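Dear support,

Our group has been running a series of protein-ligand predictions, and this particular one with GLP is the one our PI (initials K.S.) wants archived with full inputs and outputs. We had some confusion internally about which version of the output was final, so please treat the block below as the authoritative record. The input we submitted was:
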Amino acid sequence: MEIIIQPTYAKLVAVSAEIVRDALLKKPNLVLGLATGSTPIGLYEALIRMHKTDGLDFSEVTTFNLDEYVGIPPNHPYSYHTFMETHFFSAINIPSENCHIPQSTAVAHEEFCERYEATIVAAGGIDIQILGIGKDGHIGFNEPSSSLGSRTRIKTLTQSTLEANAPHFGDSVDAVPKMAITMGVGTIMDAKQCLLLASGESKAAAIAHAVEGPITAEVPASVLQMHPRTIVVIDEAAALQLKRVDYYKQVYANKQKLLSSG
Ligand code: GLP
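Confirmed final output from the archive:
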């Protein structure tokens, strides 16, 4: 795991946007795994700026979103379909047929989930999977106790996740859908690279467990320790409970030095 600690959210966003931009410049038909939540919003804004000012081209990009609530239509104001359209897709030049988001209204859920997995494989697999992290260490909607080998399926959300998402539903926990379709932990682990973003002290414990704790289904993000190419980009506040902060900063500084001398 590569741990990049930045002083502020703005810097975290800049570093992660550069990682995505560089990958896209190398591979114009990049396959991106996308996340919702407040954390990646700044990344999407930075990519939109790069599109508008530098002509960063998304015309050949394919995207797969991690998850979607079950039981609300795609055009619901708080659906992840609406979120992605508002915060990213409507502002870049990506063809809508290239954007894949789990269909919460699919009747045959199991069949839909299998097809979602097959579509990812047919696209050549995910090149970079962007991830946020829940306070309890969940990724996508893979709540604690999710199988570390799980595939796309329906999950019931924990009380903590319902509460965390209530602000998006008019501050009403009751209004938050109780279930979601989510890529599995195994699906996420198949991505060629994972880019986990976290900001703020409320994520410090989850980051410490995920990065330095034991690998356990109790903290689904901890399985990323087994992923050969995961980059964790966090701000100082999210790094507060990490034990090896100095070492991670030293590794990053050395890498920057090597890159600038090479
Ligand atoms: C939800 C999403 C996750 C996201 C998490 C944290 O549970 N399904 O993909 O990582 O929220 O969101 P935020 O970035 O708003 O803290």
